[in-house]
Amino acid sequence: MLPQYLQLMMTFNNKGENINMENKVSLSKKDVLSAFWKWTFFSHANYNYERLQASGVLFSMSHLPKKLYPGDEKAQKAFMQRHMQFYNTEPHFGGIINGMVLSMEEARANGADIPDDAINSVKTGLMGPFAGIGDTLWQGTLQPILLAVGIGIASAGNMLGAAVFGVTEAIIMLTIAYIMYMRGYKTGKEGVQAILSGGKMKQLIAAASIMGATVLGSLTASYVKAQSTMNIPLGQAQLSLQTDILDKLFKGMIPLGITLLTLYLLKDKQLKSTTVMGILVIIGIILGVTGIVG
Amino acid sequence: MEISVLQAFLIGIVYYLGINGTPWLTCMGSTIIQKPLVSGLIVGIILGDPLAGAIIGAAINLPFIAYISAGGAPPTDPGLAGTLGTALALAAGVSPAVAITIAVPLGLLGTIIWVVHMTVDVFFVHMIDKCALNGDMKKACFLHVVPPQIIAFIIGVIPVALGCYYGAGVVSNIIATLDGTPLKVLEVIGGILPAIGIAMNLRAISKPGILLWFILGFVVTVYLGLTTMPVAIIAGIVAYLYTGLTANAATVSAADDDF
Asked: Fewer beta carbons within 10 angstroms: which end of chain A, N or C?
């Protein structure tokens, strides 16, 4: 590992001096757009357990080595090798890192003193935070809301539900992806750090989790279904367990109770989701066979 | 309802398009087509009953509504639940709640396909390493796109097509023998399974005090009868104001500490 790494460093140092004296290379708008679209389409095309999106990063910049290091095969090979490192982020929000790497590579080819380490540490240092931001805002908040709306429309017997979800999500996510990537390319390291350390992003994440949790509460009320049909005989009259007792105490207490129990098993008891699923099936069988719920 | 070979094959392709990583529709393939709400409708169109497909798909989507795929280790696979699940439910003619109970175990099976795909792709990464040493970018690009997709196509389309073609009759027969109380129990299970998806999402965004907002959303929906969209809008406004206030309070107290 080490000799190869040192060799890379030396190639780069030589290269840096050479290019500094000769003409500069710069990426055209088309180069940047092409890298963005290749990333957007192919980031996960070879998703794997060892290095996740590594070859996705390389593929997205496959047109760069020849452009940045014309005629310098050594530098081209070094470029390919340094972008085969482990990489895994949320591709829409995390695209800001890819955009930034693009601008770092451009600066480096023009002689800036940016060692391999710098590019790699930027990638590995930022991929986690942006995956966290992306997953919270998108999969944790936006997607459940859009799905809930779509499901509401579709389960009422309207085929447009799927389209409402799909089109809205595609427009929002591709817009975010484009803005993030271009911002990463234009503002570079400082811009990205500003996003991460700024209070606005923290506030947005905090607000998103509050909104997400509230919507999840609403979803529980609408879609976790457990209605009792049991009747308790009281002499001549019959008392309905659901409408006369449970609803008077707290409407929807069975679904809410089951959901909170599920959360307790997952979060506090740290059970695997498949185990919890099994427990829910057993609860369902007990409730169904005894006729408490039906 | 019978499922023909061609229909089974087409449903397999719908599944393939929703596998994580299929590039043809950007990541929107594995996040939009993969959702049972969408794939259910497409399967319904293939089987000639779009409306039933849309309704069943929407129901099957419920346990997966808060599905988060992060870090490459998904707990379940909404894609298989939405495609094969909808196809089998339509073939057996069951209610949406029973469809959920059929589809959720299929989702668990689907993770096997994911693991195979993520493991096989490791070989291609090593081959691309060699290309990087030789500076062969053309071959690296080819290896990144073509072989992984051929593998994904094979391990995606074949099991789903076989499952549709041979499973339809089996599931119909099982459901027929379950008529009565067993079928009712399946409905009860299908009614409470959405809790798992919701709880998993809550766990993911969990921080102190978040449970209060969850209960607020529940109460507002149950007692005021609001649907999810207005609740989302109200929650968004309240969350924005609340986090703004707490951020201000934090800076004020920090400023106080300085003096």
From this structure: N
